[in-house]
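Lab meeting notes turned into a lecture example. A postdoc, R.K., suggested we walk through two folding results consecutively so the class can see how the record format repeats. The first protein's sequence and structure tokens come next.
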Amino acid sequence: MDGLIPGDPERIGRYRLLGRLGEGGMGRVYLARSDRGRTVAVKTVREELARMPDFRRRFSQEVKAAQRVGGEWTAPVLDADTEASTPWVATGYVAGPSLAEVVDRQHGPLPPSTLRVLAAGLVRALQAIHAAGLVHRDLKPSNVLVTIDGPRVIDFGIARALDVSTQSAEGLTAAGAVVGSPGFMSPEQVRGEKVSYASDVFCLGAVLAYAATGRMPFGTDESGMHALLFRIATEEANLTGISEPWQGLIAGCLVKAPEKRTTLDDLLTSIEDLEDADAAPGRAWLPGEVLAELGRHAVQLLDSEDPEDRVPAGAPAGGFGPPPSPYSPSTPPPWQGPSPYAAGPGFAQPSPYSTPPPGPGPATPSPYGPSAVRSAKPLGTALQVLLILFTGLALARFNLLTETRSRLGALPVDARTSSVDGFTSMRVMSYSADILGGLLIFAAMIVWVCWFRRVRLNAESFAPGRIRYRPGLAVGSWFIPFANLFMPKQIANDIWTATTGRPEGAGRWLLHTWWWLWIAEFLTELNDYQSWDEAQFAGDAVSHVFSGQVNSAVGVASAVFAVLFVSRLTSLQRARIAGTA
């Protein structure tokens, strides 16, 4: 990391700049600290890019989508100002070497046990990115940072904003313009075709092949950039030296036709099914050499001091020592072709690990911890008890209404309702069930919004800035007419994604089923507004009884799935907090 130079701002937004991490085709990257002490990477956009037609609108869309990316396998997008004279975006600072540095400089090809954790983490990161509607477009070793806890993917959601000047209205990239890094591009990127999620799968295969062999699967650009791109588009990857089953898994990613490539879900299942004899509970996933290097730099972080000439004005003294020699990876830099951003579509990403960040304390505070989250189990247990009691009462009410309908059905349709056998006793039982049901619903509603707010706050700690709406709306949205038909579901979707780290559609059947049953129960409740005993004639009373039966039946189903949903989400968050998810 380099110190700030004349002309660099002291602050960007609410972040105090500490030094320069690097500079690329898109702009500069600064190490910074928020007013509350969080260390971040602030990436600014070059003015000439900001002046491109439609760039700001596209950049704003991509940043908002990137902020919704969930999961623990990415560097979170925390803040941005797309309307500033110099647009910028702030992401979580990940203190770890890039995969390029680990393979090229520290260790070489990775062993199967490390490759397994790397692959699973990258798949989960892409699942989270795709769930937000983004295609990474530039997955490469330098955009994968390695930490003790696993890999982290950075610079997602930015390349598309830069692609605005090279795309047609149909989303196709103009001839001669490349968005991606040669050697780790998909055939459709090379040909300038429309890019889908499958493009990231191909790039993932190239990254895994590189990690397993220490070389790029389609060779380098020593014979010329166009020759490299031609090999990507037409020739098979060189997977020599990769043992099965990894060779087959990687080959499935590197299929030329996007529609024939393996899917992320299938790939993750295959990876998780692999037997790893070296894996053991508590065993580090990284080779010893890499762990030792991480340890040495941790000591540097504690012992080093910051020269005064590298401290921005107004910043406290103390921090980091003189920077080591910058690392130059052996993988080729992004192609400087006709694209107007010479260093590639993304920001330069020097290894934030090679120079300890300034200031005391850990470089990357945990996004969730004992002070930030609290188990929702007490509220969840109370809520489940209330829902189970309501289920029993709804079943009893359904049986009572069934008996009432049977007796009313024996009367002529124009007979007086009050003439039915046992009218008084059935009316008393119906009123009692309605009153008790109302009390249970009121109690469950209070506990429900408290539980929902708690899991929403936990989710915010798991994935900062990625939950829609303010925390107060986790309560208020349930009571806003019309909005309560969709806003709570949107919040629940974000909570689920942040908790599980998996994209939309992955294991969400329980969430979706509960929600639609709740909507059905809400609508049938509106139709069950009149008690059967208030009808003058038996025929009308039967209609009211039937409405009550439908409402009770739907209520039972809704309550059962609500119990399952509450139990599942509460358990997932407990496991996430405990670090066993």
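The second example is placed directly after the first for contrast:
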Amino acid sequence: MLKQQDKLIHKVAIAVDAIIIAISFVSAFAIRDGFDFRYLNEMPPFAEYLPAMLLVIPLWVILLMLFGVYGSMREKGLVRLSWSIFEASLLAILVFTATAFLLKFNLLSQTFVVIFFGLAVSLLTMEKWLVLKVLRSIRRRGLNYRAVLIVGSGSRARDFVKSIESHPDWGFKILGFIDEEEMLGRLVGSARVIGTFDDMARILDENVVDEVFFVMPRNWLDRLEKSVKVCEKVGVKATICIDFFDTAIAKPVIKELDGWPLLTFDATPNDFFFLALKRSLDLIGSALGLLFLSPLFLLIGLIIKITAPGPVFFRQIRCGVNGRTFPILKFRTMVVDAEKKLEELQKQNELEGPVFKIRNDPRITAIGRLLRKTSLDELPQLFNVLMGDMSLVGPRPPIPSEVERYERWQRRRLSMRPGITCIHEVVARNNKDFNVWMKMDLEYIDNWCFALDLRILARTVLAVVRGTGC
């Protein structure tokens, strides 16, 4: 009955959101035209707008679904829910705009798209806020609750109970605890230990239980399989608290491989949709960049050939994801035998750590100095981005000899695809502390989001225009 109720609520929520998107679509036209209905007869019939609306509604709803907007609202806060709505809506409007352009929906102006997006996001957020408020009010009155049984009564279980009891709006009602026989009858928070593992089947048969939370010590894991099967048999949801391992950064992710359930601890961003969006930006950005900048490539190549005898491009082996090596491509900014002269200059290194950099490096050519100042020497790396070895934004790819001298904590910067530009290139380019660079790269990995890449790209363009490098 409860599952049927959830499915019905889920369908109603989708229908309401579809109506809101449709209302936003129609309203955007009215607002765009300043509510001036005098020229209504001159406007195309609504049938001409219908294909666009029929495209955007299911697209938007599917993305809201994929971003978890329609999951259980018990543990979700308004900020988290609003952000999910914004992310899904932003992707929806981008895909819709691109598709509308390809299908030549000429009736949709930029003004309409902006108004439509703003209206839809605002109305969807207001609707969810209202639903959350109503549900929380109902649950605080002891209604619409889920009866839960908790396996374990140790310190972790007690902390878990405190979280539940401090959030009455979640709507969880603790029936009792399952623990060792000597703990029977003992009060833990607001409930008692009502049975042992052997009593679980009887307790589930005799009581209304919607969910069983397993918050138990590691040495009880051998009992877990039998207990989960008891829940499975009677159709009660079993949820396992998996904080058995004290990982500071890596986040647990449930995966499946050919039917094998896997628990993965991932220390890198794992948001599939936004990683796919990042890769899409890389492909589109690098392809368009190579296309539109090809005259500049030819000009720079010609100047290098005339002023600095030798090859136009400089190839060097760099380390990519998890230490994979690849040949990076740059415009040559140094004399041909620059690598041989490096040892002579090592004592003048101005940076700490394994990287090498000096002001007024004598190996840099005249045109090379200009290219480095404007970061135009990095442009050929658009080929590396297109090939998938690099991204537009990410930690800069080191050379293997640098990686050999890394401390263990510094190697984690290799866990993400390297980039043409990175956070310390636009924030702390003149900071000579190698450890500061490393920490900023790790902060980028730990806090990565698609919006952060866009901000770094914007600041990179600004730095290049100003001639301060990237």
